[in-house]
Design brief:
Blueprint: H1 11-47, H2 54-75, H3 94-122, H4 135-157, H5 161-184, H6 192-205, H7 210-225, H8 230-241, H9 248-262, H10 264-276, H11 282-295, H12 301-318, H13 323-336, H14 344-353, H15 357-363, H16 365-382, H17 400-420, H18 425-443, H19 449-482, H20 485-500, H21 502-519, H22 522-539, H23 544-559, H24 566-575, H25 583-602, H26 605-613
Helix pairs in contact: 1-2, 1-4, 1-18, 1-19, 2-4, 2-19, 3-4, 3-5, 3-7, 3-8, 6-7, 7-19, 8-19, 9-18, 9-19, 10-11, 10-17, 11-12, 11-13, 11-16, 12-13, 12-24, 13-16, 13-23, 13-24, 13-25, 14-22, 15-26, 16-25, 17-18, 19-22, 20-21, 20-22, 21-22, 21-23, 22-23, 23-25
Length: 616
């Protein structure tokens, strides 16, 4: 008699199973959030019975979904980081630097997991405002961070053994040198704030993903200072995303993926091609106008770039256009679309700076129109007429007009919701996602259960990536506030402006956001510098909505500016073009957009006319 022996699961099999579980949990939590928000709104409007616990549940679900989504993004190596300087390192040093980064990712992930779970235990028995257990927010966050730690360990173990050992030794040497210095000559040791900034910039330029570099900077301060408990770090990370307003981010990202899956994207682009594709520079005009329309539907700029670029970059190759120039225009169009609602960065700025999100959406329309017009004029002046041999943009698509009407209906839903104030940004985004599901499944019948599930997984992963950066940036912003950095920066900027004029403050603010937008992901730059600069702007008499739009455009220029702009690298990955091929054309486009930014900055009426007319 023989017995069956179970085949042991390999490490790769275990990681694959964990990734599948992480994807499923993140997507299911996002789906549950969508059900809770839509159900709450319907109960309030149809039955006049508001669900008191809905906000607390929705926020808790978002925190959990964000950390599981961020874990999945880490497992797939989708985290954004500045690779420009690391790529310049000698071949023998680069693997060691990458190993050090892998060790630091494990360290940060494990610290988040430990402190989040500890915070869950400490808050046991406490309740939210609606009476729900408070620990239900922190335990899912902690478990998601545990998944993140396991994925980080798996990434670390895939490296050569000698590089793994070298990475651990480098971290141990740095820690040992600091401890020895502090023990032998404590008076000469740099302050915790200085060490925090050094650690941040060294690790960021060494290629550590932005979210982890931000979190590590906050941890360096906590470890060196020695007076703050570690749970403060986890509490601030949770606080950074535990807000109902920010739930609009995953919902609008979901809308973008659902549009791509249900066929709305390709129908809109094909209709635009038939409308303006025959004119001089027609394909480029289609690209700009497509970004205008998609940005009015999906809040995620990278989702817009993926949807438009996946169709138009191959079309540019078939039309024998320079693909580098096409990707550069795609990136420039994404900058232009930064202030077209429902832009995620406008939502984040409104949240951190306590500004009306609806007011920011309206204030960004005319500046975006100015930049779009400038890009279209350039496309026409320097473009060529299509020839008969040019391949069609896409294959024939059925239901073009029904697709266009459905897409415009989504735009109307979003803008009418803000104009008439019958729902918040989050509630509008939830119904926009529900609308995209119904249109894809019932009207076009192209959205099946499998593609809808994939859309939820992609949206949860992408939003987890964004919100993890937001959470990490909040932890660093909290540390900066403790050190009174906002107060010092505000006083400095105010004194410079009082002696040299408001124009200097505006130019300095633009320069800061362009530089930091190229170094940091857009959300992080706005979270850190928005609250620093906006109070000064208000004290100088600058309209906050106008200044907010200027900050977002400046950040967008930095985000897509070579050689560090992370958005440009993302566009190049989507277009399958080396960054080097885009540098010359993107410089011209960004120069044009910078001139538009100066016009917007020094002609406030472009930003303030519509908000004032609509009562914001």
């Amino acid at each position: 008699m023989t017995t069956d022996v179970a085949v042991p699961i390999t490490r790769h099999g275990v990681i694959s199973a964990l990734l599948l579980a992480s994807d499923a949990i993140a997507a299911l939590l996002l789906l549950a959030d969508l059900v809770v928000v839509c159900g709450s709104v319907l109960a309030r409007f149809l039955f006049n019975a508001p669900v008191e616990w809905s906000d607390d549940v929705a926020r808790g679900l978002m925190v959990g979904s964000s950390f599981f989504g961020a874990a999945s993004a880490l497992a797939r190596a989708e985290n954004l980081g500045v690779a420009f300087f690391a790529d310049m390192l000698p071949a023998k040093i680069r693997p060691v630097v990458d190993a050090v980064s892998a060790v630091l990712i494990v360290l940060v992930s494990a610290t988040v997991a430990f402190n989040a779970l500890k915070l869950g235990a400490l808050t046991a028995g406490q309740t939210t405002g609606s009476g729900l257990p408070l620990e239900l927010t922190f335990y899912p966050m902690g478990v998601g961070a545990v998944f993140m730690t396991v994925f980080a360990l798996d990434i670390f173990r895939t490296r050569d053994l000698k590089h793994m050992i070298a990475g651990v030794i480098v971290i141990a040497l740095i820690a040992g040198l600091y401890l020895a210095w502090d023990d032998l000559s404590p008076d000469t040791v740099p302050s915790s704030g200085v060490l925090m900034l050094i650690g941040f910039f060294v690790t960021l330029f060494g290629g550590l993903p932005i979210g982890f570099a931000l979190a590590l900077a906050a941890l360096i301060f906590i470890w060196v200072e020695g007076t703050l408990p570690g749970v403060i770090f986890a509490q601030q990370m949770a606080r950074g995303i535990d807000n109902f307003v920010l739930l609009a981010i995953p919902f609008f990202i979901l809308v973008g993926y659902l549009m791509e899956a249900n066929g709305m994207s390709v129908r809109l682009i094909e209709l635009l091609q038939r409308a303006v594709g025959h004119m001089r520079g027609g394909l480029n005009v289609v690209m700009v106008t497509s970004m205008v329309l998609f940005s009015g539907i999906s809040g995620s700029k990278m989702a817009d770039v993926a949807a438009v670029g996946s169709v138009l970059i191959p079309a540019a190759r078939r039309a024998r256009q320079n693909p580098g120039g096409a990707v550069a225009l795609l990136a420039a169009s994404a900058v232009m679309a930064e202030t077209i609602p429902p832009c995620i960065n406008l939502i984040i700025l409104g949240f951190v700076a306590n500004l009306s999100i609806g007011g920011l959406f309206v204030a960004g329309l005319l500046p975006a129109g100015l930049m779009a017009l400038a890009l279209i004029i350039v496309c026409i002046l320097f473009g060529r007429r299509p020839v008969q041999s040019d391949a069609p943009l896409t294959a024939p698509v059925a239901g073009l007009w029904s697709g266009a009407i459905a897409s415009l209906g989504l735009i109307v839903l979003i803008f009418a919701g803000f104009k008439f104030g019958f729902a918040t940004a989050t509630e509008i985004s939830a119904f926009a996602a529900l609308y995209a599901l119904v249109v894809g499944g019932v009207v076009f019948r192209e959205l099946n259960l499998r593609s809808a599930a994939h859309s939820f997984v992609h949206a949860a992963t992408r939003s987890g990536l964004v919100l993890f950066i937001v959470a990490a940036a909040q932890s660093l912003a909290f540390i900066l506030t403790l050190q009174q950095v906002p107060h010092a920066v505000g006083d400095l900027m105010l004194s410079l402006s009082q002696s040299h004029g408001v124009w200097l403050f505006m130019l300095l603010s633009i320069a800061v956001l362009i530089v930091m937008g190229s170094v940091l992901e857009g959300a992080a730059a706005l979270i850190i510098f928005g609250p620093l600069l906006l109070p000064v702007a208000v004290r100088l008499g600058i309209d906050p909505l106008h200044f907010g739009v200027v900050l977002v455009i400046a950040m967008g220029i930095g985000l897509f500016a070579p050689p560090l702009g992370l958005g440009l690298y993302g566009a190049c990955l989507i277009g399958k073009v080396p960054v080097e091929q885009t540098i010359k054309p993107i410089a011209g486009y960004l120069g044009l957009l910078f001139l538009c930014l100066l016009v917007v900055a020094f002609v406030p009426a472009i930003s303030t006319a519509l908000p004032r007319a609509l009562g914001y």
